[in-house]
Amino acid sequence: MLLFFQHLFKRFLSQLLTFFIITALLYATAMLTPVKSRATLYLPPRVSEKTYDTVIANIIEKYHLDAPYPVQYYFWMVSLFQGNWGYSPTLNEEVFSAILQRAPATAELILLSILVYIPLGIISGVIAGHRKNRPSDHLFRFSAFTATSLPPFILAILMMAIFYINLHWFAPERFSSQYYSYLHSDQFHGLTGFMILDGLLNGRPDISLDALRHLVMPVITLALAQWATLGRITRATMIEEANQDYVMAARARGVTERSIVWQHMLRNAISPAFSSSMVSAASLLTGVFVSEIIFNYPGISYIAVQSMGGIPDAPASLGFAVFSVILVLILMSILDLVQYSLDPRLREKA
Fold first, then answer.
1. Among 271, 249, 272, which residue's Cα sits nearest to residue 260?
2. Which domains does the chain have, with CATH numbers?
3. Of residues 42, 36, 28, the one with CA closest to residue 96
4. What is the pTM for the complete model shown?
5. Tens digits of per-residue pLDDT, 99-132?
6. CA gap 270, 258 in Å, rounded
């Protein structure tokens, strides 16, 4: 247990350092714009034209926007940790509150996708690697090649055409219109922000089933390419492990083939599998934005879309970028801790 907390502390420090480096680069990019443009990051809502210049001058003085870069970055980070991410004129609300409002929907989509593609990727990779060059292996390799070759936005459009327009099995958005009035009334309590769980907690399993039905297409779109990558790496690891001495020794002792594959070889294949998942965390987030936009899913990608259209919206754009960095780092940390818990070799190295 002590080693686990030591690893957790080291991972926290590493991710915190990564966060500061990336945000420092983000703010360095923002510094390419004029001082008055950066001051709009802190501009309050509904400022009249008469007081606009005065307000901008006060913001520049308060946040030291005419000071050297390290000073500006320090005050920007202080404002971020205080929850002051700026006011978005396109969203007509504070950026931080807008992100908090839409983050649970994105988190639910990502979490469900991870729960789908990690078990399926590992299991299919193990089976394909153990049955190398057999029909099941050829089927997996063909499916994985197709999944990685198909761009997510093309897959999403195909799914919309087949499962929504033609078959009417699944639907876009987050829930059906028949539940709209109830979900926005005082009778419904959004305790977790996850529609599947909140439906059950409110005694409405029909809402949970409806939310799950709306998640099917974006989850498949998001998970398919990740499943293929994870499965390929697991397959390659299993093929490599099959020639190791411990496998031959286990067979000589009369250990069943099932035990060798699922109890011994799989343990060594877990670590590379989760390492690949950590590396692909950024691409997973990119897939989330594609899925949310095409399926009209109300996640944080809405903020990015709104910030790029119409009038320039620096607070929303920068807030979206910062939140994306935080989300990727959290995903990598979770997968790293799972890998550390499952692989005893990592604990021995600590």
1. 249
2. 2-84 (no CATH), 94-349 (1.10.3720.10)
3. 42
4. 0.86
5. 999 999 999 999 999 899 988 999 999 999 988 8
6. 17
